[in-house]
Amino acid sequence: MFFLTRLFLLLLVAGAAGAQPAGDASRTLSPYFVVSGAAPGVDALPLKSTRADVTISGVIADVVVTQRYRNEGTTPIEARYVFPASTRAAVYAMRFTVGDRVVNAEVREKQQARRDYDRAKKEGRSAALLEQQRPNVFSMAIANVLPGDEIAVDLRYTETIVPDDGTYRFVFPTVVGPRYNGGTQPDGTPTESRKNEPWIAQPTLRAGQPAPHTFGLNATVLAPMPVKMLASPSHALDIDGVGEKRATAHLPPDRAHANRDVVLEYRLAGSTVESGVLLHRGKEENFFLLLAEPPARVDAGMLPPREYVFILDISGSMHGFPLATAKSLLRAQVARLRPGDTFNVIPFAGGSSLLAPQSLPASEENIAMAIRFIDQQTGGGGTELLPALRRALALPAQSGRARTFVVITDGYVSIEKEAFELVRANLGQANVFAFGIGTSVNRFLIEGLARAGKGEPFFVLNAAQAEREAARFRAMIEQPVLTRIRVKFPAGFDAYDLDVPQVPDLFAQRPVVLMGKYRGTPAGTIEIEGIAGGGAVRLPVDLARATRGDDTQALRYLWARSRIAALGDFMKLRADDDTRQAITALGLKYNLLTDYTSFIAIDKVVRNAGGASTSVEQPQPLPAGVSELALAAAPATPEPEFALLAAAAGALTWWLRRRRVLVEARRA
After folding, report:
1. Confidence class for position 641, pLDDT limits 50, 70, 90
2. What pTM value is reported for the model?
3. What is the C-alpha to C-alpha distance for residues 70 and 147, in angstroms, rounded to an integer?
């Protein structure tokens, strides 16, 4: 009898677990796997296609993204979709088209835009709302999509394309990776990684399932000199025009293209970067963008000894290809340390471990021990980045050594700003470099960590790129950089509201880039001065050769986007009304999407009397190479006895339901 009672209780527990809906988003606010099947008549996959049309002229890219939604069901729906964006994107326009009606969006304060959208939805009018959840994560909501409707939403953005070692690189993200949103402490309280943001609870397809919508891209590169090389390390593109001043790249629409970032790389003829100034004269304000080629590298002299602290993400999302690539990269970095260097390794997931209590000399014995330690790491668990960073920053510093922290992760967390603030508050005399590993990493985190730590970001899409990026990192560390940079403007050219309060030290073979506003006459020479390899460097830029005209109108948006990004990075985690108001004012004045301003488009025609509809969340595919372990709901393979219990639980549930129906029928 005891055995039967225990079995019955186990069956009830198993049945209850099986009845729990996969991805109870309202409870966990975590990404969850999609459960197949929708309510009768509801089109659960309304987004049918996305297309990006890209025009790159000089160092400015203008992008039009077109999303097409179609309701193939029999019930009115509200379509909602979370999608990625470039971290540099300045989104300045949106419109939607339904039938022969075109509605242009307006930018409004975020809460007001949300209230206007909800009102239009209840009134039965077609409406589209574009909101920013992160600088690289947007959400779209479209109200009252009627059966048979096809709605096209166009949004436009611009960004700068700054060359690195002579290579220009344009990135178009296609998928938002699942964000780890905290775990639970032993006392039941959530960890510090928990965020109360509904967008994080996005529906996700199982591994191997292609995106439910197609993705395609058309890109045109217009250059002042012939395009020497145009290629993609991420996708097989149709390339044309190499060797000419106009080159094109085409990616035909396909569902298989929508699970990883599209990366487009090109080089121009000649070995130098075109230095110069772009000018835009507006009705009320004038803007400039300065681009100056860095000095040639010089041989390093006596380099100071360095301490390296490697912080390695071994969480569930890194399982498989990302972690294997990260371990390969880290082994190569450790193996090439100089004898006078010291180092440490901190792997982290839900918790963290440590190679040694304090950094070790880079001896052959210690390097061999570290490589064995690295090889033992496996992917699994959450991504508690903040405790790992805190542990690394708290390690005792070694006197007389230049200190470098290296974070290696896919960045699938929701606490980006907390990490930036932690780095800024504890950095001292060190730099932070960040490696993003994977096909669709969180570039906001990777770039933000490097910016906060006055280092550089690196991105490794595949194993072949790991050694190249590792070599670039070593060259950057081991060669002198341009420091103590100062910019002198000529008399009569009054530059103000520069996009950074101080020009940062220059790492890598990357141009000096500076944006701002100006008054007066653009004449004379801008002088950039600094120290490289122990000697003074002077980089003159002649304003007489400045580019003006319609091609520079984007500078207005780019300057405002840069100022908004700087304000957002340094915004305190506590309520900061001044910064919030400043960002809101910039978004409204310059017609930009921000954390506190949104685009709202509302049709005047009532098309769905009463406004009744079903909300549908468009699912995301898992990024290529990412394991299902990235989601907490990823099921483990059940043991045979538990599989039997689960089957019995299903039978018992069916029997109880049938009995209840019979009882109710007798009562009736």
Report:
1. very low
2. 0.88
3. 8
